[in-house]
Amino acid sequence: MIKEIVSSFLVDNTKRLELLTEAVKAANLEDIKTLSHALKGSAATIAAKPL
């Protein structure tokens, strides 16, 4: 079950991570804030607290 949860998390957040990487490269602070907040929320949903 854990494997499926992590797999689903990665599938759902792959694009978000790509966008976050691009935002960091472009120093787009608003997008960094929005995307990192969304990623943190997704991580909290699966109890990945360190994120």
Describe the fold and architecture.
Residues 1-51 form the HPt domain. InterPro entries: HPT_dom_sf, Sig_transdc_His_kin_Hpt_dom. It comes from marine sediment metagenome. Pfam families: Hpt. This is HPt domain-containing protein. With 51 residues, the protein is mainly α. It has one domain. 80% of the residues lie in helices and 0% in strands. The chain contains two helices and no strands. It has helices at residues 2-25, 29-45. Helix 1 runs antiparallel to helix 2 (29-45). The longest helix is centred in the N-terminal third of the chain and has 24 residues, at 2-25. The chain starts with a helix and ends in a 6-residue tail after the last helix. The model has no long low-confidence stretch (mean pLDDT 90).
Put the structure in a nutshell.
The chain is mostly helical and about 50 residues long. The protein has two helices and no strands. The two termini are about 20 Å apart.
